[in-house]
């Protein structure tokens, strides 16, 4: 490959490198943090779903679901991945 061809591809390589640093890496980091947050859910945590429901985790199931109590005696099954935020964490039992 001669210097002219390399000079033509260098801007493309630089653009890809900049896009990776500004877009792809932060998104991967955000996804990793969200996965850790979802995996750390436990009974009693107050959560917000992506649909905007606020409730307290009543039961954590193994099949990717949790049971969230949104009012007294009203429980809904929610897919773990749709939890947007954890408001209050409960302390683990001693």
Side-by-side strand order of the widest sheet: 4-3-2-1-5
Helices and strands, in N-to-C order? HEEEEE
Proportion of strand residues: 25-35%
| Average pLDDT figure | 89
Helix content: 25-40%
Please tell me the total number of domains.
1
> Which architecture does the CATH hierarchy give at level 2?
Roll
Provide the CATH top-level class.
Mainly Beta
Our count of helices gives 1
CATH topology: SH3 type barrels
Judging from the principal axes of the Cα atoms, what is the shape? rod-shaped
Class from secondary-structure proportions = alpha+beta
Briefly, what is this?
By secondary structure, this protein is an alpha+beta fold. Helix content is about 40%, strand content about 30%. The chain is rod-shaped, with a radius of gyration of 21 Å.
